[in-house]
């Protein structure tokens, strides 16, 4: 089997996180600057090994004041930890379209093993003859596991920001 290299296409990919605010609504963050590579045996997604990194300063919630607070030491501490990363260690195939992607997620200098759910979208060629592979990833982390411990309470004594953070990525990779 031949090793195949893939690079993420940022124009056709999106990386997001979602967190509850006041435990009544959800705020979405978008990561605008990121890089990722994969290696597979031939075109077999189940053999994927890869790495992903994102620029913390590129996170936007479309609110400048909140984005500034997220970059502060209360949350991401972008000055001291400018990147978040995920390194794939193994992929477990559940059926034709669904996989578990096991790897190490690093945020604020803290690394933890997490598992992401992946739905494989398939492989196809674009109008220029490039081979592309797409999939969607979802998962959850507890922000306190990564020392993101900002914890004000509202007047009703509920958390201002939930501990659970949902991770969502819809990505497309181009074969090299």
Which tags fit this structure?
eight-stranded antiparallel beta barrel; 11 strands; 1 helix; 176 residues; mainly beta
List the helices and strands and how they pair.
Layout (H helix, E strand, L loop, with lengths): L2 E6 L5 E8 L3 E7 L2 E8 L2 E12 L3 E2 L3 H8 L11 E11 L4 E10 L2 E16 L5 E12 L18 E15 L1
Antiparallel strand pairs: 1-4, 1-11, 2-3, 2-11, 3-6, 4-5, 5-7, 7-8, 8-9, 9-10, 10-11
Unreliable runs, pLDDT <50, ≥5 residues? none
Count every beta strand, where a strand is a DSSP E run of 2 or more residues.
11
State the helicity in percent bands. Answer: under 10%
Number of helices: 1
Description:
The chain has 176 residues and is mainly beta. Helix content is 5%, strand content 61%. The protein contains 1 helix and 11 strands, in the order ββββββαβββββ. Strand 8 and strand 9 form a beta hairpin. It is elongated and about 50 Å long.
Summarize the structure.
This protein is mainly beta. It has one helix and eleven strands, in the order E-E-E-E-E-E-H-E-E-E-E-E. It has an eight-stranded antiparallel barrel with strand order 1-4-5-7-8-9-10-11.
